[in-house]
Amino acid sequence: MLEICNISKYYGFTAAVRSVSFSAKGGEIIGLLGENGAGKTTLIKIIIGFLPYEKNGAVLLDGAPIRQENRARIAYASSEHTFFGGLTPKEHLEFYKAVYPKFDQERFSLLMEFFGLPMNKAVRHFSLGMKNQFEVTLALSQGADYILMDEPFSGSDIFGREDFYKLMLAILRPDETVILSTHLIEEVRYLLTRVLVIQKGELIADKDLSELEEEGIELTEWLKKVTGRTGSRAAELIRKIEEGDS
Amino acid sequence: MLNFSELKLTDRSPIYLQLIRYVKSAIVSGSVQNGEEMPSRRLLSSLLGVNPNTIQKAYRLMEEEGFIVSHAGSGSIVTFTDETAAALRRQLLLEDTREYLASLKAMGLTLEETASLLKEVWSEEKEEKA
User: Fold this and answer.
1) Given strand A14-24, what is the order of strands in its sheet?
2) Which residue is closest to A31 within chain B, CA to CA?
3) pTM score, two decimals?
4) Greatest CA span in chain B, whole angstroms?
5) What is the pairing mode between strands A64-65 and A74-78?
6) Among all residues of chain A, which has the CA nearest to that of B52?
7) Is the ipTM of this complex over 0.85?
8) CATH number for the domain including A163?
């Protein structure tokens, strides 16, 4: 289990993330949803250890803090890219195999073939879409138990994203956990088992989607409600415009 | 193997119910044979882009209703008799009729008005075909 306990991050007096707590267990496909700037990226970077957090919080993996020994159990993919631009996929493969003892070479080859990526070309010469594909290939092949993806397909087209999600469902083992940060809710709503909603740095909702389904509530409607975007703001605006006209 | 490529998911009802409905319709329409294989849960999850929990729930409920049977290691098959297919047909017809009537009632239609509306549209269709 991955536990995020009371995590906050301040820049000066401004909270980028404020008192966020949740835990993720094996097999969940969790959507981290929120507008651009809500704090999704900051939160993910804290979880993977790229950013420090305020003192009274903790990130725990099966009860232990994340250190050198267990860091490999968390993988990360982002459209900012974490690979080495000067290296080819073949060179990445050698490097990752050396660094990650559980690196899944079979899955790596399968994904490389699926995406049609060349093994012997430096990654910096890839197109943006190919770079994104290579980024997620590495993250999914690392042999991690928790795979965190932060808008991994910025700049890819919708068909590329849909194909990837379907591929991911085909290859994930039942105990692997995915946390996917995105604002493209329509595309991932059937894929997810649970959603976390982050707004202005705070976790404002945490919902198991099978519960929502039982309650007969559609995800986007529910999101509008929890984020306070019920359409009344638009109505208010129209009323003001009309008042101004008359 | 039962082909799910015709299934178009909507937001009108839970996904697992749409999956179950699809299999039932295939049985009623004769597009699936008794003993035909279901896709594996993983394959169906990937084909539809639907999370494995939802697929698992649909399979479990179909097992409970008795029209698919799963064996460890060898996947699931669709299983029905003429009688169970007929019962499913009636079940689907009732469901559709209830849904249809609920929308007519919401518009204030009486039974008589509904009946005459049905007759009217029914004869329109006949004329079109003729």
Assistant:
1) A14-24, A2-11, A58-61, A64-65
2) B51
3) 0.88
4) 55
5) unpaired
6) A169
7) no
8) 3.40.50.300
